[in-house]
Design a protein that fits this description.
With 295 residues, the protein is α/β, with parallel strands linked by helices. The chain is 38% helix and 19% strand. The chain has a six-stranded mixed β-sheet, with no helix packed on it. A five-stranded mixed β-sheet has the order 4-3-2-13-14, with helices on one face. A three-stranded mixed β-sheet has the order 7-9-8. The chain is globular and about 50 Å long.
Amino acid sequence: MIDKAFLKDLIANPDEISKLEYHSILQIIHQAVNILKEEPLLLELNVKEIEREVYVIGDIHGNLRCLQKLVEIIEQTNPRFVIFLGDIVDRGPYQLECLIMVLALKIRYPDKYYILKGNHETLEMNQYYGFYSVFMSKFYGQMKFDEILSLYLALPFCALVNNSILCLHGGIPEDIEFMRKLKGLKPKDIALTFKSIAKILMQIMWNDPKSGLKGFSESFRGPGIKFFGEDVFDDFMKDYNLNYLIRSHEVFPEGYRWFFNKRLLSIFSSDNYRATNPASYAIIKKDLVEAKIVD
């Protein structure tokens, strides 16, 4: 069991993470996996205190400064839940620091912080966009990186808040039954049901909304990945009696963007990402959703 004072120090001083030996990193990963593997792939989070908020955080991509600002805001406002939508690593300058800081938050406050799987929580993306090289240059050995992959396999894919707001990384898949198919499944069940849900899981991480589109269409992102239009989005929301969907996965010059009559909110929590953009996050309160810029 990792000492809480040690975790508190890492959260307050994440620059110290770069000095950690591999055995300390491994301890943090193992303890996080032990928590995550007991969580369902579809989280169901309900806020009993009507005045309490839920914060939703989009792509971080190694931007430690933005992550620290968000944690400062969270510590000041004390929301009931905090949901990370994935893509903690790759591209940015402090990828390991961001990942371990988020895991430290999860271990220290397991019933407050939740981490979903994004498309960059995969080996293929890490090899192409940087985290694999960052990790291997520091610790060496494929077997050590396998521990990161075991962490990725334990991450949930969606979070349903107050039965009315769905949070995920990318978008809705073509299979409208996906929430019913994921309900009750845990990470250990993926291997048993992988063939039937593999396409669903990929599209949850990769799909994008597109204004003016009807149905689903092919995406520039690759085979099997889709754009989805307002008509299929409305069908999905009606089927599950949802009010909002919050996702990340795309950066916008304004920091966030509303789609489909302000029922789908796309946020991105790393600023100056390949362009000049502010970082954003979402606040859920009383079944309403608000977008905020990180000052």
